[in-house]
Amino acid sequence: MSDNEKRYKIIILRHGESEWNKSNLFCGWVDVPLSDKGKDQAVSTANLILQSKENFNPTLVFTSKLTRSCQTANIILEKLNKQYLDIYRSWRLNERHYGKLQGETKSVILAKFGKEKYMYWRRAYEGCPPPSTLDDKFCGTNDERYKNIDLEPGEPLPVAESLKMVVHRLMPYFNNFIKPKLIDNNTILIVTHGSVVRALIKEVYQISDEDIININIPNGIPMVITLDENFEAVGDYFYLDPEIAKIEAEKVARQGFENHHK
Ligand SMILES: O=C(O)[C@@H](CO)OP(=O)(O)O
């Protein structure tokens, strides 16, 4: 690479383990906090960034509007001694809305609907769970998380989302708000959720609808995306701890199957 070739770095990660990750409950937009393990993971995340040979120096931070994402970012910034950095928060970086599945136990949904449907809802590009309704305990649209979210004219209020729908609400924000900030900041930190990481890498690396099914995102392991001056991907994405990322991603894939034998 010649010296004058511009390179932008995005350090993106899924939040640390949440209390509902720990209990294997579908979470989505339900605003649960980090577990104690999740808080420890966030400290480890910061150490991975500090110890990376690339000497990453993020100068801007993005989070979702959900507590588990914001908590993770706060812990990382404290550890990096960068609590002064500006943070932009958007619902467009929220986890996918899991509709009627929010609050349900994964193994129960697996047993009730079978492996094919369970994995279709969790990982298929077009897999959209049953929509939530006003009276749902965990995901009715009267929930306070729906107040003041910035929707484009005609953009529907999410009541259940597929990965494809996450792509459609994420990419305008990434292209029109995040990319211009990259020009001035060169390296940014995005602390978000599994579905948002999957949505972004699918678009940046043109991952097929079939291949994205098999990609699971571990909690709290920083992933590095490098873009050139035209915001095209340079090389492939990589984790700052590939071995742990692989092990943890496989655990995510197996969630719900712990006691399932058919
Ligand atoms: O429940 C959720 O919101 C997501 C991520 O935690 O779970 P899954 O990985 O099964 O999509």
TrEMBL record:
Catalytic residues, chain numbering: 15, 95
Catalytic activity from the UniProt record: (2R)-2-phosphoglycerate = (2R)-3-phosphoglycerate
Superkingdom assignment: Eukaryota
PROSITE patterns per UniProt: PG_MUTASE
Position of the signal peptide: none
Record's keyword annotation contains Lyase: no
Enzyme Commission number, as recorded: 5.4.2.11
Annotated positions binding substrate: 14-21, 68, 95-98, 106, 122-123
Site (Transition state stabilizer): 193
Example GO biological process: glycolytic process
Pathway note: Carbohydrate degradation; glycolysis; pyruvate from D-glyceraldehyde 3-phosphate: step 3/5
Pfam families registered for this protein in UniProt: His_Phos_1
Protein name: Phosphoglycerate mutase
Lineage: Eukaryota, Fungi, Dikarya, Ascomycota, Saccharomycotina
